[in-house]
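Table 4 source record.
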Amino acid sequence: MEAAREAGRGAAPWRAMSAEELEKQYSPSRWAVRRGPEETLKTYSEIGIAATARARAARRSLLGVPYGAAAAEALDVYLPEAAAEDATLDQMVDQVARSIVFLQERFPSNQGMYLCGHSAGAHLAAMMLPVDWTEWPVTPNLKAFFLVSGVYDLEPLVHTSVNAPLRLTPEDARRNSPQRLLEAAAAQPGGPAGPVLVIVGQHDSPEFRRQAREFCQTLCRGGWRASLEEVPDVDHFEILWKLAEQDDVLTQIILKTIFPEF
């Protein structure tokens, strides 16, 4: 079984690409359709800063709540109306898991947690799918996952400039690839199994779209309630920007998943 799986991986499209083409496939700003790469990244940062400011102004919040000892191990909690420090990817994955457990312990009567991540954030959220929460102090009340324009098999990234700050070895990549972990899992981990929406933009690169499609297929084979959503006429960055618009296609999908009566 493992030999056959590895043989299949040998035929993965990215393996036949030149270094230049592989670099392009995993550089989302080079696929922006309405702005140049530099303007896209600048706009991406500006929109994120502005949206955070609006969220803090509109909601009561607990900012910088520590869930661990490291300086970066803090989260912002936005209550209802009434950048990463130097860390390995293994540490980042552990930090996400510990922050989720912290929230469940801090708010044990919560009505549900919904994980949503974009790009690298989608990968970190997806890494929570193989977690066996029975091995943790509490089982978080996870209701759904929204994985937006993520990478789920990290091996191709090892061969691109994306890996410069991460310094992943091939083994690091395999250990932190939810695609591989779920393929190898005998069964879906125990605990609540809400829907998993694997989301990608029409103008994401072919490699991002391939990874989304194959990850969704792997989830379905493993018994997860997974679906693939391709959002029309958006690139890797616009798909996130538009979440600030209530009538956006993806915004509506997410709201109707959380609030079926919406």
